[in-house]
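Reference record
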Amino acid sequence: MENKKTKQLKNFKIDNEQKAGLTTNQGLKMAEDEFSLKAGLRGPTLLEDFHFREKMTHFDHERIPERIVHARGVGAHGVFQVYESLEKYTKANFLNDSSKITPVFVRFSTVQGSRGSSDTVRDVRGFATKFYTDEGNYDLVGNNMPVFFIQDAIKFPDFVHAVKPEPDTEVPQGASAHDTFWDFFGQNPESAHMIMWAMSDRAIPRSLRMMEGFGVHTFRLVNKEGKAHFVKFHWKPALGVHSQVWDEAQKAAGKNPDFHRIDLYEAISKGDFPEWELGLQLIPEEDEFKFDFDILDPTKLWPEEEVPVKLVGKMTLNRNVDNFFAETEQIAFHPGHVVPGIDFSNDPLLQGRLFSYTDTQLSRLGGPNFHQIPINRPVCPFHNNQRDGMHQMAIHHGQTSYHRNSLNNNQPEPVPESQGGYEHYQEKVDGRKVRERSESFLDFYSQAKLFYNSLASYEQQHLKDALSFELGKCKSQQVKDNAIAVLNHIDRQVAEEVSENIGALLPQENNEVKSDKKSPALSMANTIKKPDTKNVAILLNGAPDSNKITEWVKVLASSKINFSIVDKKVHSLNENVKVTDTYDTADSSLFDAALLISSDNKLDKKPLEFIEMSFKHFKPLAFFVQNKKSLDNIRIDLNDPGVFNLSTKDITDFIKGIAESRFWDRK
């Protein structure tokens, strides 16, 4: 059931599915919309054709500047609800009432590529959430990785320029495998930790529904008594954290460049609402200096073993957008959109973001009134003395538009903190004006080593393969050598293997961090594993028994597993079961598992390729063949892990394999 605030967000809608007469934007009914006004049937178009000019002018300006970063995104509506009051830590109302349902809008995105790039490229993913609270909009603007490439915002333009397509050729698109990015890395070792995350499987998520989110920065929570805690925000997905393998991600980019956005849209449409739990890491202000890292450094995480994550609430995405441009493209996030009880730290990257976001929205959305666009409007009333400006959509009444005034009883007037007014946390600041790096920010390599140590062996190999691929695409020998020199500070074995693969110089001296410290929370091997909403391809070869297929389809559906039946052509097997995909449209990279059902003596080429590619990508496979000879030409060891013969095993065994996702110990 929709609450009042959710309905408010949907009020600004023009329903073009209803029968209505065509009008201009001024409401004038038009009798003709196919032909411009001309001087004679074959004469020139007349300047007085206001309808043509209005229609064409709007078309000419339909595209707004895309975001410089995070240009390619997809969004959805949802709700958030806290489990129990957090008044011990914050006075934010939406975090203090477990009965309160707060509407949210979430936008997921890639960082490097343009709006036309592919979903499954290797990249950081944006994870931005707008909470429409009773006290105003609160934006939690983060990524699917808990750290970032730089420590100070003044370097942000440099980093983005380096990772973007190179300016002389405008290539590559949606990729970091090029010289300028790795040159930046070699010259800025503070990126060492983030580069390990970016080269890990975290950068190629299986689904947006299956990735973590992080606020990245250190913020403050402040309670009614003025007591402050430093905080880091986490989003923990109910489906666990899962990724693709690199070869699979590349194939998916070619087969379906919209793979992630379609996956999200279809899940919500089916009622498989994605869920995340909000987690908080909390450090009392008096404990700020009790750690072997600086808690304000955005290139550092707080290990969960040292600072546990407290799960405090749940977010559910339950409604797709009605219009991509009006909502997903026009939504404006800003880490400075906060509510009472949430404040900032002196993280130098965060401090810079507090300036740049508003500056960016002015360019993208045409002026200072972007907050009046429906998707950006708060659900609570807002009043101030700001007037006019481009795209002003409100009609303000009254004589005064300044503070203080006597003509309007000083309305609108500031609200005291005791009545919910926002006041910044009063932190003592005392120091010299400098342009320097804090000595506490100088450890670039310890947490990069911690991350690598924490990975499972197959994750470590994937990371080394990614480094070899990315650096192998670089043309400059100097760039390669400098990158290896940085890796040599993290892990000698990684530097040795990658340098040998790409033909780069390995430093004679081993400078790696000497540490075997691990954080199990950093490995996806320890994530939640369940079959829910996974996609299974049921591959038909010949004319197998439709009754058996019907039986298995019911079992898969009862386990909340999605499936597509694939054959040479679309047709109905019986009243209940229909082939939905063909071998020309389906591809193994778009599914989590495959079930082959064959009645012929030999497998056709396309189902054979489908199965072998699924096996190569470590996915669970099941077979049910009427003639064992049909498997004679298959290049798969049927006794390997994750391969299920349904002639001898129950389909529930296959479902357990689907929950496992990958079988990394195959030969």
